[in-house]
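ugh ok fine here u go
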Amino acid sequence: IRARLSVNLSGRSLGDPQLLELIASELDRAGVDPSLLVFEVTETSAIRDVAEARAFAESLSDLGCGVALDDFGSGFASFLYLKTIDCGSVKIDGEFIRSMTRDQSSRFLVNAMIEMVRGLGKLTVAEMVEDRETFELLREVGIDYMQGDLIGRPEPVEDIDFSQAVEWPEGLSPKRES
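structure:
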């Protein structure tokens, strides 16, 4: 499995006309495969200006980068953004993920989000995967990707060797390779 780098964008970044030019020039300069880079747009920043968020996401997709709608389920109009913003994946808010092993309603909501997102042809990402029980439950329900301390702790980008395949922690392996 190849590592993908996820980059969170602030709400202010979406309105910065120079950011897209900077991303394009840095990708070209570094010779990086843009499909290995995923930009995460938080649902709350998309709420501020849907048209701006949609245009920004389309531009990133045109560059070949991935776009994820981050913290899905935490905002007021999640379904509108899921429908209107061109994103390849949806990152389910960690508050749902963290409590799903002990809270039936969180488990139900996570399952519903996975089915809905899949029905729209997008990939699912679970954030805040911190223990094996949560990992196994997410694997059973068919989540596409997982992030969190159990999988790997955040580290400075300069310390990451992108030429190496991802090593899963002992005893953990994905349900399927993506």
